[in-house]
Each structure stands twice: as structure tokens, then as C-alpha cells.
Design brief:
The chain is an alpha/beta fold and about 400 residues long. The chain is about 35% helix and about 25% strand. It folds into three domains: about 1-45, no CATH class; about 65-175 and about 315-385, Rossmann fold; about 180-305, Rossmann fold, CATH 3.40.50.2300. It has eleven helices and 17 strands. The strands form four sheets. The protein has a seven-stranded mixed sheet, with helices on both faces. It has a five-stranded parallel sheet with strand order 4-3-5-6-7, with helices on both faces. Helix 1 runs parallel beside helix 10 (about 335-355), helix 4 (about 180-195) packs across helix 5 and helix 10 (about 335-355) crosses helix 11 (about 360-370). The model is unreliable at about 1-60 (pLDDT under 50). The structure holds (3S)-3-methyl-2-oxopentanoic acid. (3S)-3-methyl-2-oxopentanoic acid binds near residues 162 and 286. (3S)-3-methyl-2-oxopentanoic acid binds near residues 160 and 285.
Length: about 400
Amino acid sequence: MTNINLSIIKHKHNKDGVFVTMKKGFIKKWVTGLTIGALLLTTAGCGGGGTAPAANNDSKGEAAKIGVIAYLTGGGAAYGTAIKEGLDLAKDEINAQGKVQIELIYTDSRGEKTEAINAANKLINKDNVVGIIGPTLSGEMFAAGPIANQAGVPIMGTSTTAEGIPALGDFVFRNALPEFLAVPQAVEKAISTYDLKKVAVMYSNNNDWAVSGYKTIESTLKKNGVEIIATETFADKDTDYSAQLTKIASLKPDAVMVSSLYQEAALVLKKAREIGITVPFVGTNGFNSPELIKIAGPAADGAIVASPWFPGKADEKVQKFIADYKAKYNNKVPDQFAAQAYDALYLYASALEQAGTTTDRQKLRDAIATIKDFQGVTGKFAFDENREPVMNATVLIIKDGQFTELK
Ligand code: 1QQ
């Protein structure tokens, strides 16, 4: 008998579809030993003394083809590059372990919805993949997810954190920490640490995920009685933020909260520090790339973000992953995007193994949906009844160019 703890997180949505409350329960569940996959050996026709077929496996030892849609080139390429590195490392390990074989077929969606749609169609109809990992951006998932769902192909975002992703359909999953879980933790931690009373908010208004993150920031601030003294918008790929930041500087907020990808966030931070805004910044998932620090330099210091990934964790599995990743990638430390992609491929591998197939999309989907007590490098993981991830976050602050835990 195994004693496992499951952390159940419940969420509700208000009339605007915005997450408003979260309740954490802690239950203990006794799990009896499972008898996994009784061997189905047919005696009929075995008289010839041939080798028995692989038990409970319809694929005769072929590799499972998993398609990947990632933001590999363009302004957000650091996200997709990290995702690819995490996936490649996991694939090597899984194939060496030998329980299932995986082939990854990559497509580059460049952060564009139309490219993500084209990639999904190619992977589903031409490459005949059993499942898809990606796309990188929630906006791309809103475009490509329904296509995979319609075709009955499981699709799992590893970095898609906007509200409403699994609601796209039964075949749509994510193992990314949704903003409705991450943002309240980061924002509330900042409120209590810095005694915030009035803040300014900025977000990219042509990016579905950034808008969703902004809405969660806004509802969290309202819930905590913090006044929003300015709300400024911009667009992905903008390079000049002086108008918005000059206005914000004149209002003297206690903090600035920004929902955008790393490129835009880094330029916002640089400009803000340049014109004398020294207050803390709180970000959404876009802040989780070390590329933010690379571009912004010392201006990134003091930025706060929640993440399920923290390389400083003493956990043995985490430290082994970091060591193996550094060995494979020239001493590079894995970021959150690499870690979530790494976990996602292990989720697929364990579901493929459990389903006993490398080709049956429906069986694979059903096996993924039942994952309850997965232990990844981003911590304990389960899907809830809405296929939303159940996982924990750490609130991080950038100090001296490093993500450190904000305690
Ligand atoms: C989303 C995100 C981005 C930050 C992924 C790179 O969280 O689009 O959902």
C-alpha cells in the first residue's frame, strides 16, 4: 500500500470568466497496489512456436510519433528553444529506458496563429502523429487546439497559461501553470511584502494570453482592495514605451504589473528604470524566461513572477534534470519552459505505456486524462476533472540577475 497526498485546488469563475476564488484542500488517499496490464496471451494459433506479440500493444514496437508545434524563430524564440531542448532530453532518456519509443516531429509556428493551424493540419494529416505537444502561445492554442480536438488528436500545451485552454475540448490539455493559479500568488505576495496600496498595470492588448493575464491581475488587485491608478496598453513587438511609462511615473505607483512576453517586458523594464521608476514590477508567465534578464540586464532586478519551476529546489529529481541538461546543452541551466516540456513528454510516455499503444489517439487521450499522481521536475502533478493542471507554484524575484525565491 502506498500513502499519497493529493492537493486539490478548486476554482470558480465570475460572470466575466475570470478566476475569483481558490480553495485548497488536503486529502490523503490510500491506494492499493495496482495490477497493471495482465498479459493477454492468446493460445490459438501459437502452435507454430513463433515469438509472442508484444503484450497489450498494437504497434509492433514502432516509435510513437509526437508532433511538436513551437515558437522556434522570431521574437519569442527563447521560449521555443527551451521547449525543444527539454523535449529532446526527455526523448533521449525515455527511448534509452526502452518502455516506449518516441519520435518527435518539429514544426516552427513562429508565434503566429496561422502557422500554428498549418502545423497542426500537417502533423495530423500528413505525419499521422498520435499526439501533439504545443503550441507555445495560448493564442496559437486557441487557433490550433480546436483543429486537433476535432480530429480526435490529443494536444498538450506546455506553456499555455491563459484562461480557457482545456475548455477548447476533451482532447486539449496543458501542463503549464494557469495564470489563474500563478498570478494571484505573485500579486498577493507582492502586496504583502511591499504593502502595496496603488499600482499601475500594463499589458499587450493584441496577445490573447497577455490579456487573460491582465484580467487576472485586475481581479486579484480588486479582491485585495488595491487601487489601480493607471492601465496602459501596447502591442506585441512594440519597442517604444516612453509615453505609457512617463504617465505612470507621474502617478507614483507603489508597483507596476505587466502582462507581456519577455521581449516587450524587458524593454518596459529598461525604459522604466531609465526614467526613474524604481518600484517593484510583477509579471505574468512571459517573465519566466531568463531571456528577460539577458535583454533588460540590471533593470530586471526586483521583478516578481510565480512559477512551478525553481532550479534551487533541493529535490533529487530536479537536480538530476539540471545536471543532465547542463551536460547536454553546454552548461546551460534549464528554465521553466524547458522543465515543463520535459515533464510533458514524460506525461505522454507514461500515458502511451499505460494505453499500450503508439498509434491509437483515443486510447492515448483517455490515458492522459486519468493521470493523477505524476511526479515531474516541476513537482507533483495531476489533471483535475476539467483537465486543468493541479500543481504548486513558487513566487520568484529577480535579484542580481538571478531568479530567487521571494520568501
Ligand atoms: C501563453 C504564455 C506565454 C508566456 C508562453 C511563452 O504563457 O501564451 O500562454
